[in-house]
Amino acid sequence: MHESTISQRERNRLDTWNAVHEAAHAIAWEEGPQEAAVEAIAARAGVSRRTFFNYFPTKEDAILGTRTPEVSEGDIERFRTSDEDELTRVVHLFVAVVRTAIPEATSPQRRRIIGEHPSLQRRVLRLLSEVERIVAEVIQARVEDGDDVALAAPGDGARLEALLMLSGVIAKYAFHRYQESSAEDPREFLDESIAMFREVVDTTR
Amino acid sequence: MHESTISQRERNRLDTWNAVHEAAHAIAWEEGPQEAAVEAIAARAGVSRRTFFNYFPTKEDAILGTRTPEVSEGDIERFRTSDEDELTRVVHLFVAVVRTAIPEATSPQRRRIIGEHPSLQRRVLRLLSEVERIVAEVIQARVEDGDDVALAAPGDGARLEALLMLSGVIAKYAFHRYQESSAEDPREFLDESIAMFREVVDTTR
């Protein structure tokens, strides 16, 4: 969606989301996550408890600025129709879904608060396993269509798990590269990260 | 070390280690990890505070039955002199060091208590990053000797990180296979796990 096409209604939703996230982060930063109860966050953001839950499933998500992971029709379509190899397609799908759950825009505050309160990392790990489940479902649906040789070969479960774990670690590697850089988009690093893992496998035979 | 060669002194050390771990686990299980203070653990195990710290660097280690990771001379020697490819050698080294820190013998209790108190997982993650640092140091020393083509090629830092991340994820995959099995030793699954990741890379070109 281009910025110019965001409706007033959508803008209002974003503003409210940001206000609730800012309030939750501020309380957790100043007084600790245990003080960031839903009531306290809602009061500071000037919204009702009910509105809070329209925006955030848990108070940890409000503190961290994270969302429930989703996969868009566009990402599924790209995964299904792309000419790229399966590993590349899975890594791109993985990162697309991660970005819906763990937005870049809230990343600096998120890193700062996790640094101070490491137990918050658990919520991020939980979101990443939800991402993995969603990606596995998309792949499984594709396998049932019958045309991915590598994925549909016998022993699917173990092979699919290896593919998902490999995609996850390549995505993590790409995010490390991105964080060291001044690039605008972590996706710039995906193809070179996939190439690096392929190279490590190839040069260690 | 074969069991028959364990000295009485070493047996006494193992007994004390187990007694302190059992006491720490019992308190954390019955009353929660926050109640498992060093004093309470030492009292329940019938040892002094000073003895406690001779056996465990932190109370989390006592609860989890974990140790500070170490690399043995034998493991370094195997890594340096083996004819296997580098990925295989790194995965085996990684698992050897993991096993010093996160022993199999205490695994069922550890899984149970982490299931109940997920914040304890942080200590395990911390130990795994210490393992990664130790393995990186062993590799780095080997690279300085100058005879590993893949590792000593230009761009070492990024390549070494990819190799470590790949080894870690293959080790994790092997442990998943092991936990699903009735095998006695997770190392049985290492070679087939490495082969599986190679296959995923090869069949997704």
From TrEMBL, chains A, B:
<dbReference type="Pfam" id="PF00440">
    <property type="entry name" value="TetR_N"/>
</dbReference>
<dbReference type="InterPro" id="IPR050109">
    <property type="entry name" value="HTH-type_TetR-like_transc_reg"/>
</dbReference>
<keyword id="KW-0804">Transcription</keyword>
<keyword id="KW-0238">DNA-binding</keyword>
<keyword id="KW-0805">Transcription regulation</keyword>
<dbReference type="InterPro" id="IPR001647">
    <property type="entry name" value="HTH_TetR"/>
</dbReference>
<feature type="domain" description="HTH tetR-type">
    <location>
        <begin position="14"/>
        <end position="74"/>
    </location>
</feature>
<feature type="DNA-binding region" description="H-T-H motif">
    <location>
        <begin position="37"/>
        <end position="56"/>
    </location>
</feature>
<dbReference type="InterPro" id="IPR009057">
    <property type="entry name" value="Homeodomain-like_sf"/>
</dbReference>
<dbReference type="GO" id="GO:0000976">
    <property type="term" value="F:transcription cis-regulatory region binding"/>
</dbReference>
<dbReference type="GO" id="GO:0003700">
    <property type="term" value="F:DNA-binding transcription factor activity"/>
</dbReference>
<protein>
    <submittedName>
        <fullName>AcrR family transcriptional regulator</fullName>
    </submittedName>
</protein>
